[in-house]
Amino acid sequence: xxxxxxxxxxxxxxxxxxxxxxxxxxxxxxxxxxxxxxxxxxxxxxxxxxxxxxxxxxxxxxxxxxxxxxxxxxxxxxxxxxxxxxxxxxxxxxxxxxxxxxxxxxxxxxxxxxxxxxxxxxxxxxxxxxxxxxxxxxxxxxxxxxxxxxxxxxxxxxxxxxxxxxxxxxxxxxxxxxxxxxxxxxxxxxxxxxxxxxxxxxxxxxxxxxxxxxxxxxxxxxxxxxxxxxxxxxxxxxxxxxxxxxxxxxxxxxxxxxxxxxxxxxxxxxxxxxxxxxxxxxxxxxxxxxxxxxxxxxxxxxxxxxxxxxxxxxxxxxxxxxxxxxxxxxxxxxxxxxxxxxxxxxxxxxxxxxxxxxxxxxxxxxxxxxxxxxxxxxxxxxxxxxxxxxxxxxxxxxxxxxxxxxxxxxxxxxxxxxxxxxxxxxxxxxxxxxxxxxxxxxxxxxxxxxxxxxxxxxxxxxxxxxxxxxxxxxxxxxxxxxxxxxxxxxxxxxxxxxxxxxxxxxxxxxxxxxxxxxxxxxxxxxxxxxxxxxxxxxxxxxxxxxxxxxxxxxxxxxxxxxxxxxxxxxxxxxxxxxxxxxxxxxxxxxxxxxxxxxxxxxxxxxxxxxxxxxxxxxxxxxxxxxxxxxxxxxxxxxxxxxxxxxxxx
Length: 649
Hints:
Layout: E1 9-11, E2 17-19, E3 25-28, E4 32-37, E5 40-46, E6 50-51, E7 54-58, E8 65-69, E9 72-77, E10 80-86, E11 92-99, E12 103-107, E13 121-125, E14 128-132, E15 137-142, E16 146-147, E17 152-154, E18 160-166, H1 169-181, H2 185-200, E19 202-203, H3 206-220, E20 223-225, E21 231-234, E22 245-247, H4 248-258, H5 263-274, E23 286-288, H6 292-304, H7 306-311, E24 317-318, H8 325-339, E25 349-350, E26 353-354, H9 355-368, E27 378-381, E28 391-395, H10 396-413, H11 418-438, E29 440-441, E30 446-447, E31 450-451, E32 457-458, E33 461-462, H12 467-470, H13 476-490, E34 508-509, H14 535-547, H15 554-566, H16 592-601, E35 618-623, E36 629-635, E37 638-643, E38 646-648
Antiparallel strand pairs: 1-2, 2-8, 3-4, 4-5, 5-6, 5-7, 7-12, 8-9, 9-10, 10-11, 11-18, 12-17, 13-14, 14-15, 15-18, 16-17, 19-35, 20-21, 22-23, 23-24, 25-26, 27-28, 28-31, 29-30, 31-32, 33-34, 35-36, 36-37, 37-38
């Protein structure tokens, strides 16, 4: 996507986005992702395998109106209209139109992926065209259209054309046959999906409803499978597909919105991530789960790049030894145990090693490296969430995660092993004392970002230090001070020291000091880790204000979304800042603001607790860990709760 703004979009009451022009929309599902805009359907990818063929619109659409809902793009113009629906569960896209419609042209992938030598081929069918390659197969078939030359297909009287893809010809053919047999099947699937998401979280406020609808879709549709149905983990976003991988960190934040609504999905992800935890407690940034074609391409890529191979020494792992991954794993174990009411989760065996053994190994590994103040010490590297920043020593972000891992594991193991629980609590107490002495700056009113073993510190205000609040490292006074500082300095509406006006919440200010080694996108002020607005951190910030019933929650919750809509962005993006192109569209962990609404606004907990959120008329339906379905409705300040249809006092 370009850095420049597109035509604005506005939210309707049901969460749909309305605008003029033809803003692009990212399609995401278990097997397929793609991008539709006025020029056609591009960036088509079969999960686990690679790029598939694309479709061009000839001529390019000149839409006068547009309506967007998750995986549905409807454009209209004088004399015609086109709806493009992408299935959530199968690699199929249905195009349905009427009036003056463009010709569709199936185009071959431009690049041959590493590990392959033969270019894709294209051939005509009786009702369309197909493109085949050694890594994917694509079909463009018209229900009753006209087949032209050079990959072209024209709409027939029914106005239906199907684009289907697959890891092989069988998968693509099955998806095409399914969609052609019932062209309404994808529409029916999407309508049910949208209704389900609105039942999970509905809000009378149109801006909040649109954020909830599109955010929940980004999270749910990040769940991926391979052609054989094997679960392939939760993807980070559209921009993180090859090699196909699932992250510890990104998945953790994605699942915060899903734990209260579909906790079984978090358990599924946990078991996949467990396989990447080493016996000594080390874990990579992510786990690679691919088809045979995807594995072949990943091997070839590593073989051709010595630097890449050094950072990725193991075939099934993405970026070895990340400091935060093991801690996110421990936190996820504890949260899954609570939300799934799985008291025996630590005894769950994965490849011959229990989850409890993996948790213990992680906590002992971190403890073995603590410094003289009891703080977790990270080797000097770029291996945590800020992976364009080289830093080492005591990092506040990591201390918060470590504190939460210690306290929550202590609570989980206490009934069976009180001595171990007490040991973890003592370590947590030492961690709090060390953070107060080494990382807290009372003169600044916030924690420093990190302090190196030499004593030198990067003392700018960083939104990542919110982990200290979320996981109990900060005391009440420190928390209040940090939140006041964030409001004054990271909310761009209040910060006149940054040059771009009111555009959201910066992740850091001022930019990193000159002595800090940066690489890639973070070398530029206000870009990436060096000051961009990250919606997932906005969600963590909004949640902190909502949990404490503090005013000012709406700005971090929605400003990033409003700015995106003003610039024609129809899905939650990974990050954004005015001078630079935004990050990945339909980014899964950018659903964290929805988690803030559920966990902070409604106050949902595993035991069924709920309270009225500050935004008024709204509601939610969710399962309870102990069984039953809880329905919540808020009218004004009145809260009504039902369990399996019966009112609860």
